């Protein structure tokens, strides 16, 4: 098939600018291990923990033959999805000599923010669904959550980590949840002494307490009501805690990690014109990316629902 002339131009400058000014409260691009795939349809390995935890006889003597173990996994098929958001400016507005600077950049940054907000909500829904963890989850109640009188969040979180196949190196939590843990009485006393009951500990200290390398704090909020209704803002990552072992060296063929983002096409900004609207037409800016988020080893994760 002959190569088609695309009706748009991929603008590298606007793409780079939009990536550089990503809203800091959104963490979706930093959560899962990233793997690039060569096709929108792909296969991936869903790992069986039995292979790593079952021993074999490794003593062979001087002339023995070593026992071979097949690397077990379930091969699954999936495909990436295309995500996009567009905005536009009239050609007349672009040609006007106004005090407004970087008109195109501002529109593209706004468009990418909308695109990534939707991406964050999708990922949070995937990781906050207990059925995706195959038993590695617990739902707390008002009687035993971390806000209750006799709560012991350190012991409970460590208990959950101990049940994982590989110990967590990452904690994912909302900004409200992080503030709660930073101000938790038992944690504050560990940091400042038993005589102190109030205050906030540094986020770095929480890493030491729970022995994790990263704590990703999601500050993003979303309106949960429909358009036209009064705004109801909620944290995207809610009141749950997600514990995960993430291995940056893993890919879809080899290596164990809690989850992966299979990327077919990286984010880019497409620019094209439409002569029909307005007096002189409009210029469109379309933000596009193509990927799929997957949980590839549920035993490398643990979900604590309704922790606060």
For the structure shown, list the relevant keywords:
phage-related protein like fold, 25% helix, five-stranded mixed beta sheet, 308 residues, alpha+beta, globular, 14 strands, 29% strand
Can you count the beta strands?
Answer: 14
| C-alpha termini separation | 57 Å
CATH class: Alpha Beta
CATH superfamily: phage-related protein like domain
Write the layout of secondary structure elements.
Layout lengths: L8 E2 L1 H9 L12 E4 L4 E7 L2 H4 L19 E7 L1 E10 H5 L7 H25 L9 E3 L13 H10 L7 E5 H8 L2 H8 L10 H8 L3 E5 L2 E3 L9 E3 L5 E4 L14 E16 L7 E14 L5 E5 L3
Parallel strand pairs: 2-12, 6-14, 7-8
Antiparallel strand pairs: 1-12, 3-4, 5-13, 7-11, 9-10, 11-14, 12-13
Helix pairs in contact: 1-4
Brief account:
The protein is an alpha+beta fold and 308 residues long.
Structural summary, described in words:
The protein has 308 residues and is of the alpha+beta class. The chain has helices at residues 12-20, 50-53, 91-95, 103-127, 153-162, 175-182, 185-192, 203-210, and strands spanning 9-10, 33-36, 41-47, 73-79, 81-90, 137-139, 170-174, 214-218, 221-223, 233-235, 241-244, 259-274, 282-295, 301-305. It has one domain: phage-related protein like domain (phage-related protein like fold). The protein is built from 8 helices and 14 strands. Strands 1, 2, 5, 12 and 13 form a 5-stranded mixed beta sheet that branches. Strands 6-14-11-7-8 form a 5-stranded mixed beta sheet. The chain has a two-stranded antiparallel sheet with strand order 3-4. Helix 1 (12-20) crosses helix 4. It starts with 8 loop residues before the first strand and ends with a strand. 26% of the residues are buried.
């Amino acid at each position: 098939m002959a190569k088609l002339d695309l009706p748009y131009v991929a603008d590298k400058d606007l793409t780079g600018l939009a990536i550089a000014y990503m809203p800091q409260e959104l963490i979706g691009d930093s959560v899962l291990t990233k793997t690039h795939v060569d096709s929108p349809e792909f296969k991936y390995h869903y790992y069986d923990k039995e292979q790593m935890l079952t021993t074999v006889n490794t003593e062979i003597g001087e002339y023995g033959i070593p026992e071979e173990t097949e690397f077990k996994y379930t091969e699954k098929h999936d495909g990436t999805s295309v995500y996009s958001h567009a905005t536009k400016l009239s050609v007349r507005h672009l040609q006007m000599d106004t005090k407004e600077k970087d008109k195109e950049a501002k529109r593209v940054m706004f468009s990418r923010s909308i695109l990534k907000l939707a991406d964050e909500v999708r990922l949070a829904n995937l990781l906050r669904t207990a059925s995706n963890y195959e038993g590695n989850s617990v739902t707390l109640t008002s009687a035993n959550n971390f806000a209750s009188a006799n709560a012991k969040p350190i012991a409970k979180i460590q208990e959950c980590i101990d049940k994982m196949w590989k110990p967590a190196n990452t904690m994912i939590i909302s900004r409200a949840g992080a503030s709660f843990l930073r101000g938790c009485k038992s944690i504050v006393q560990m940091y400042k002494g038993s005589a102190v009951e109030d205050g906030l500990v540094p986020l770095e200290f929480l890493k030491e307490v729970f022995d994790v390398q990263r704590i990703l704090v999601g500050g993003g909020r979303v309106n949960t009501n429909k358009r036209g209704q009064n705004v109801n803002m909620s944290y995207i990552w809610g009141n749950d805690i997600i514990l995960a072992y993430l291995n940056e060296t893993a890919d879809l063929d080899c290596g164990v990690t809690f989850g992966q983002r299979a990327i077919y096409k990286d984010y880019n900004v497409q620019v094209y014109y439409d002569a029909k609207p307005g007096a002189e037409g409009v210029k469109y800016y379309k933000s596009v990316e193509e990927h799929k988020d997957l949980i590839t080893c549920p035993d490398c994760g643990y979900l604590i629902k309704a922790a606060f």
